[in-house]
Structures are given as C-alpha cells and as structure tokens.
Amino acid sequence: MLDWIDLHPYTLLIITFIILVSQEIIGFIGKNQLQEFVWLVYVKVGTQLSLSDSFKLYSTKVSEIQRLNKEKRLISAQDEYAKWTKLNRQVDKLTGEIAQLKDELSKNKSSINSLVNLFITLLTTVPLWFFRVWFRKSALFYLPPHYLPHTLEWILAIPFFPVGTIGLTVWIFAVKQVISSLVFLLTFPFEQPTSKPVKVEKVVEVKN
C-alpha cells in the first residue's frame, strides 16, 4: 500500500518514467548548454525589463550604439569624414562601456548556474531518491506465473518482494536501460563515422 502520498502504482510508474525521460533529455542537451541558455534569457529579460541600474544602463547604451551605427551607414566616410570619424569614436567608446557592463553583469552568472543546477537536481534526482526510499516496499505490478525463469524472477524481486513482484528500483533500472538504448538508436546515424581499421603488416627484418 502506498502510504502518506495517495499514489496509485500506475501513477508512480508514469511519474518516474517522466522524470527519467527528463533526466535523459537534460543529459543529452548538456548541463552547460542549459546554463548558457538560461543566462542569455536572464540577460535579455533583465535588459528589456530593466531589473537593475546595470541592466537599464546596458539597455540604454545598446540602443545608443545601434542608433549611431545606423547613422554611420547613412553617411559616406569620404564625403563627411569629420562627422563619420566623430561617430566612429562614439561607437568605439560605447563598445568599451558595453563590454565593461557585460563583465559586471556576468558576475551574476555563477549564481544563475547554481540555480540551474539546483533546479535540475530537484527535478531529476531528489524525487527518484525519495520514491526509492518511501516506496521501497511497495509493489508496482506482478508478473504472470512462470512468465520468466524462476531465477530471473527471484533477482527482479530483490530485496523486499516475493518472487514475481516488480518494485520501483527494478522499474527505474529497466526504464533507464530502455531510454538509453532508444537514444543510442536515434542518435547513432548522426554520429561522426569512425574510419575503418587498417591492418598493419608486420615487417620482418631479414638479417644477412
């Protein structure tokens, strides 16, 4: 019986399946790529909403440099050299200031990365460990009699169940293996092909 949390075994199967799929997707995409994506979203949203003075100043300077570059494209460097040079100096100055602001904003990146790591852990790791402990003695489903060899059924029932019972630990292991195999089959055609091994002929030195 599933106590404390009213989870039907089928519901528990589906929840763990979704978590394991999410875990595999995150692993496939890569944690670093997710961190970079969240950081870019954070910078974009922070710039648009002016979440702090740094974001507000950054947004103002980006708009200003876009305006100056547009103005530069509308004039000829040869015909209006003095004006073009003045605009170019302003652009160079703003470029340096924007780079400095980016460095200041990037100090928050480690905090963003830590939050992303925490979110991934809470999403894909903590629930599985909790389920494994809390539902360790809860049977999820039963195999038909003599469906598998007795020894295999006994192994699948380890450590708490009678023969023919499937628990959460075995279910998680089986699902992970299936998902990993499917990912391999789907990604294998796009992998960089490995060159065919060439047999190296052994050269025998003949002594005179």
Description:
The chain is an all-alpha fold and 208 residues long. Helices cover 67% and strands 2% of the residues. The chain is built from 8 helices and 2 strands; from the N terminus they run H-H-H-H-H-H-E-H-E-H.
List the helices and strands and how they pair.
Blueprint: H1 9-29, H2 31-49, H3 53-73, H4 81-105, H5 109-124, H6 126-134, E1 141-142, H7 150-157, E2 165-166, H8 168-187
Antiparallel strand pairs: 1-2
Helix pairs in contact: 1-8, 2-3, 2-5, 3-4
List keywords for this structure.
mainly alpha, 2 strands, two-stranded antiparallel sheet, 208 residues
Strand content: under 5%
Into which percent range does the helicity of residues fall? 55-70%
- Return the structural class: mainly alpha
- What's the β-strand tally? 2
Radius of gyration over all CA atoms, rounded: 30 Å
Oligomer: single chain
Q: How many strands, what sense, and barrel or not for the largest sheet?
A: 2 strands, antiparallel
What's the arrangement of strands in the largest beta sheet?
A: 1-2
- Which spans of ≥5 residues are poorly predicted at pLDDT below 50? none
Give, in order, the helices and strands. HHHHHHEHEH
